[in-house]
Amino acid sequence: MSPTAHLSCLWALLVACLAHSIRGSLRAQAPGPQPLELKEVFTLFQIQYNRSYSSPSEHARRLHIFARNLDQAQQLQEEDLGTAKFGVTPFSDLTEEEFAQVYGHQEAPGRVPNVSSKVVPEEWGKSVPSTCDWRKWAEVTKTVRNQNNCKCCWAMAAAGNIEALWGIKHRQSVEVSVQELLDCNRCGNGCNGGFVWDAFITVLNNSGLASEKDYPFRGDDKAQKCQAKKHKNVAWIQDFIMLMDNEQAIASHLATHGPITVTINMKLLQHYQEGVIRATPTTCNPNLVDHSVLLMGFGKTKSVARMPAEASQGGALTRPRRSTPYWILKNSWGPKWGEKGYFRMHRGSNACGITKYPLTARVDKPAKQLSVSCPP
C-alpha cells in the first residue's frame, strides 16, 4: 500500500471515531488542549498536504480551526440530500473567510455587461441524452489546473471552455495561456479576481490567445505587463453567449456544443471529498455565486437497493434508492482535490446557483483577409 493510501485509511478510521465527539467538545470548549485522536488526524493532515506553521500559537490556532471544520463537515454530511462525502480536504486548516478570500472571486454583479453577449433560447425543448461526459474526448480532456493562491478561477474556466470547444470543432488539441488573460485583462485585476466575461472580452480585444507553453502561468500577485503581442496565437473566438437560466436548456447546449462555464456558490466545496452534492438554498444560497468552473457533462447515479429498518427484525424486503441526476464539473484546485479535480452536483434543483451565469464562447479561426489591389 502506498504512503498516500495508508494515510487515507488512517484518516478514515480516526475521523470516523472523532465525528461525534468533536462536536460535543467544541460546544463546551474554548481553544486549548485537544483530544489525542484529533491531534493525530491533524498531524496526518500536515504530512499529506505539507503544512507547517510559524509558531506553536499558530499551530494551536490552526488545530482549533481544523477541529471546527471537521465538525462543519460532519454537519454537512448529515444535512446534504445527495451522496456527497464531506471531510478532510486541502483546505481544512482555513477559516471560511480565508477560503473565500483566496479561492473564489468577488461576488458576481446582478447582470452581465451587454458586450457581445446573447441569450440563446433555441436550446429550450430539445431532446437531451441520458448521459454526456466530454472528458472522454481526447481533444477536450486537459490536466486539471491549479490556481494555487491566485484568484483566477474565472480565467481558468474561460480557458478550459475555449480549449474544449476548439478541440471539438477542429479536432485539434490546444492549451491556451491563462497568464495572458490575467496580464491583459481589461480591468487589470490579475490574481485579484475577475469574471468569465472579462476573460472572453480580453480574447476578443487581443484577437486571439497564445499557448500555455509560450506564455506560461505564473500565478503570483506581482503585476506583469501584457505580453500578448510577443506571442503567436493558437485559438480565437468570434464572441460569447449566455444561455437560458434553465437546466434543460443548459444540458441540451452542453450535449450539442460542448463544455460551458458556470459560476456557483462554492461554500460547500471547502469540505467536499466525493459524491453528488444535493444542497438546499439554506446550505448553499443560489443567489450568492462566487466561483467559476467548467461544466463538463451530466449523468445519473445507479439505483441501489437498501435494507429498511424493519427488515432487521426478520423481514427480507428491500426498498430501492432512486438514482440521482447530476452535473459533472471541472474545478481549478488541482487533481488532488475532490474526484481527481472534478466534482458532481445535483441536476434539476439549481444547486448552488448553477443556472445564474452559464456562459460559453463561440470559437473559430480568423477569417482570411482578401488582398485588395488597385485595378490597372
Verbal overview:
The chain has 2 domains: 3-79, no CATH class; 101-363, Cysteine proteinases (Cathepsin B, Chain A, Alpha-Beta Complex), CATH 3.90.70. It contains 8 helices and 15 strands. It has helices at 3-28, 36-48, 56-79, 96-103, 153-170, 178-183, 196-205, 247-257, and strands at residues 85-86, 119-120, 132-133, 209-210, 233-235, 237-243, 260-264, 272-274, 276-277, 291-300, 304-306, 319-321, 325-330, 342-346, 359-363. The protein has 376 residues and is an alpha+beta fold. It is globular and about 90 Å long. The N and C termini lie far apart (80 Å). Mean pLDDT is 84; it is low at 24-33, 309-313 and 315-319. Strands 3, 7, 9, 10, 13 and 14 form a 6-stranded mixed beta sheet that branches. A 3-stranded mixed beta sheet has the order 2-6-15, sandwiched between helices.
Main attributes of the structure:
alpha+beta; 2 domains; 31% helix; 8 helices; globular; Cathepsin B, Chain A; 16% strand; 376 residues; glycoprotein; 6-stranded mixed beta sheet; Peptidase_C1A_C
Task: Tell me the helix content.
Answer: 25-40%
CATH class of the largest domain: Alpha Beta
Number of helices: 8
Write down the overall mean pLDDT: 84
Q: Which range does the strand content fall in?
A: 15-25%
- Mind summarizing the main beta sheet? 6 strands, mixed
CATH architecture of the largest domain: Alpha-Beta Complex
Oligomer: single chain
* Count of spatially separate domains: 2
* Radius of gyration of CA atoms, rounded to a whole number: 23 Å
In CATH, the topology of the largest domain is named Cathepsin B, Chain A
- Molecular shape: globular
Tell me the total number of β-strands: 15
Structural class, by secondary structure, is alpha+beta
| Strand/helix succession | HHHEHEEHHHEEEHEEEEEEEEE
Keywords: Disulfide bond, Endoplasmic reticulum, Glycoprotein, Hydrolase, Protease, Signal, Thiol protease, Zymogen
Family: Belongs to the peptidase C1 family.
GO molecular function: cysteine-type peptidase activity
Function: May have a specific function in the mechanism or regulation of T-cell cytolytic activity.
